[in-house]
Design a protein that fits this description.
eleven-stranded mixed sheet, globular, about 475 residues, 15 helices, alpha/beta
């Protein structure tokens, strides 16, 4: 039990109250309410939980934080009126868990592509350097060696601070965290103390939520605007919006690049599907990740480590042995000599990067087949763009289901095909069932051919009409390979 007065530290209240009450936990879902909880009512996009205040009171909560008191609620109760309950939830949660983010070094990674790879590489690198580390990512949350399943790229404020508190309890020194644009816009990271922030890139994505690219850009930038002067801000200078992130930040500013002068400069010497010979700040080394996009990821990781550790030789030596995230340019080979590549690429820029990487290093004597879909109930504008890119940069393309969610898969595939140029129509095959699409791609492949499975990466499920069933591209591809070997 924690005093309400402690939870309300640094919170602007619309009126003073008697805060000498003990609180069991903070909740935002009235269905989970039990005796002595603090219920925070939030105005959401789809619903306003102020309508559930009376139910929470009936279940025994000790106090309510809200923006207004509904007419049907009892007047004789402890209400804490605030201007915007969503905005303060992060600070409330941070106070409840005794501000855990200030007790370790919390590094946030944001951008359209590369967040998971950069955060995972940093977690693994610092663990290999001898530090106790933690990770909050799309794939999983990790505290030392303990793996906790992930449900969101960035958890809600209460869950997030609970995770951070557990990291502090386990003596973690560093936490590397993906910071999504949704999390910034919804104040899920409010109240956290960041040691640093990293920007990877920004391209067309999430416009179903943000509506305009400008809104999406501002959400990313807000993260850097709010960094304290004690923190660092590291940005990709080659991205056309990279320096925008640094415009108003109070943090110490750093840049990385392949094409321009920067604090952390890289140069690709050699590249193939097994990795990169990359020069970083004048030192050449071989890294087990492929493609220009991974060169940028490695530079972001190196720059961060250098800022925090400042031991160039040790960082590079350890980074060459550090592996990235599952489902990010993951290679699978068949006994018959077919090469499979599994990647999470689900944006136009990401699929373009992956296909250009493959095309740069292949001989062109082999056939490159891309199996790709687009998620349902998500940004529809990118579907024809992705269909165009995939058909333009592949020899064959199979349009198939990703996670259709509540949409008709056939509609999604038709919208993808609408972007395909006439000269590429002959490359296209439509197979709605993803498992069947993978089997057909494998059955048509010969020795030396390449199959790219794009869009799902680490995901081990497929969601159709709100129902999730087990589906793992890696497993399905291996099974298909075994069936023809």
């Amino acid at each position: 039990m924690i005093s309400l007065s402690k939870i309300l530290q640094n919170i602007d209240l619309l009126e003073s109250i008697d805060s000498q009450i003990s609180i069991n936990s903070i909740i935002t879902d009235n269905r989970l309410a039990v005796k002595n909880d603090l219920f925070v009512a939030i105005r959401g996009v789809a619903t306003d939980s102020h309508q559930y205040i009376k139910d929470a009171i009936n279940k025994g909560v000790s106090a309510i934080i809200c923006e207004y008191i509904p007419d049907d609620c009892p007047k004789d109760f402890t209400y804490i009126l605030v201007e915007n309950s969503r905005e303060i939830l992060g600070q409330l949660a941070s106070n409840y868990y005794d501000n855990p983010s200030s007790k370790l070094k919390l590094i946030g990674v944001t951008g359209t592509n590369g967040k998971t790879t950069v955060a995972t590489l940093l977690k693994n690198l610092f663990a290999n350097l001898g530090y106790k580390t933690a990770l909050i990512s799309t794939i999983q949350n990790v505290i030392g060696e303990e793996i906790i399943p992930s449900t969101h790229t960035t958890p809600d404020p209460v869950s997030l601070n609970a995770l951070l508190a557990k990291m502090v309890e386990k003596d973690c020194e560093y936490c590397f965290m993906e910071v999504s644009s949704h999390a910034v816009d919804q104040n899920r990271i409010g109240g956290l103390t960041f040691t640093g922030g990293i920007f990877t890139n920004i391209t067309h994505d999430h416009l179903d939520y943000h509506k305009t690219f400008d809104n999406y850009l501002k959400a990313k930038k807000k993260f850097f605007d709010n960094l304290p002067s004690s923190a660092f801000a590291l940005t990709n200078k080659d991205d056309r919006n990279g320096l925008v992130m640094l415009q108003n930040t109070k943090a110490s500013k750093y840049t990385y690049s392949l094409k321009s002068i920067s604090d952390f400069k890289g140069k690709i010497i050699e590249s193939d599907l097994t990795g990169l010979l990359l020069e970083i700040d004048g030192t050449q080394a071989w890294y087990g990740l492929s493609g220009d996009f991974n060169a940028y990821n490695l530079l972001a990781v190196y720059g961060t480590a250098f800022i925090l550790v400042i031991d160039k030789e040790k960082i590079i030596e350890t980074l060459t042995k550090t592996r990235g995230a599952k489902g990010r340019f993951e290679i699978v080979r068949s006994e018959t000599g077919v090469l499979g590549v599994i990647d999470y690429a689900h944006t136009p820029d990401a699929i373009k990067n992956v296909l250009e990487t493959i095309n740069k290093v292949r001989s062109r004597n082999e056939v490159l087949t891309t199996v790709i879909g687009c998620g349902g109930d998500r940004d529809k504008e990118k579907r024809p763009i992705m269909g165009d890119i995939a058909s333009m940069l592949s020899d064959k393309v199979i349009f198939t289901s990703d996670n259709p969610r509540t949409e008709d898969p056939e509609t999604i595939l038709a919208e993808m095909k609408a972007g395909v140029k006439a000269q590429n129509f002959k490359k296209i095959l439509k197979i709605t069932n993803r498992e069947e699409a993978i089997q057909v791609a494998v059955s048509q492949a010969k020795k030396g051919d390449i199959i790219l499975l794009a869009g799902k990466g680490h995901e081990d499920y497929q969601e159709v009409n709100g129902v999730k069933t087990h589906f793992d591209d890696f497993e399905k591809l291996k099974q298909a390979f075994e069936n023809i070997s």
